[in-house]
Amino acid sequence: MILVTGASGYVGGAVLKRLSERGHSVSAMVRNLAGAAEVRAAGVPIRIANYEDRASLERAFDGVDRLVFVASDGDARAVMRQHANVIDAAADAGVGHIVFTSIVDIDAASTFYFTPVYRDAERRLAERGAGATLLRCSLYADLILSNWLRPARATGEIALPLAEARVAPISRDDVAEAQGT
Question: How far apart are CA 140 and CA 128, in angstroms?
Fold first, then answer.
């Protein structure tokens, strides 16, 4: 059975839909039922767990063969702790393979504040000794559109927080498609 975390979010929801449509045995993991109307409408089994609650994760991962782990977001220290909780709970539950949405920039010399978070998650995945697939995603193209390009229409100026960075934007739908196969 495949469990998709973040199933009430954009990427997780799209992955869940694709896997379900392709006939996979799939379940959804959400923090609570309040924001999971679309997940309930999809008719797949739902497991309630929170990245901050290790015991809830262990219960949610029971019987899971493959985990589609959509990365958390927020304060870097909290995200690092949450990712560790998910990876460690999956290892303890015997999850055979984890597909993880990482980032393209995990180089030790990087100045990006999230780099240590994802480098730590990738290290943990490697150390757990089971299979893992890393989807190193770049900046989501739809976020560039909504957060920078649309506002630029009003101001006449495009300002992206990239400095000297090279960016190869990717759509969230493409990330979901890669995970949903």
Answer: 29
For the four alpha carbons of 36, 30, 27 and 139, in that order, the dihedral sign comes to: positive
- Angle between the N-to-C axes of helices 10-21 and 172-179, in degrees from 0 to 180, rounded to the nearest 10: 40
Torsion, Cα 114 120 126 130, to 10 degrees, reads -90
Rounded-to-integer distance, Cα 108 and Cα 119, Å: 8
Q: pTM here?
A: 0.83
Model confidence at 170, pLDDT cuts 50, 70, 90, reads low
Residues 12, 41: Cα–Cα separation, whole Å: 15
Could you tell me which of 89, 84, 85 has the C-alpha nearest to residue 120? 84
Q: How far apart are CA 38 and CA 181, in angstroms?
A: 21
In the chain, DSSP assigns E strands to 2-4, 26-30, 46-48, 66-69, 97-103, 131-137
Do residues 13 and 7 touch, judged by C-beta distance below 8 A?
Answer: yes
Handedness of CA 51, 87, 125, 6 (dihedral sign): negative
Q: CB within 8 A of 154, min separation 6: which ones?
A: none
Using the CB atoms, write b or e for 77-87: b if 16+ within 10 Å.
eebbebbbbbb
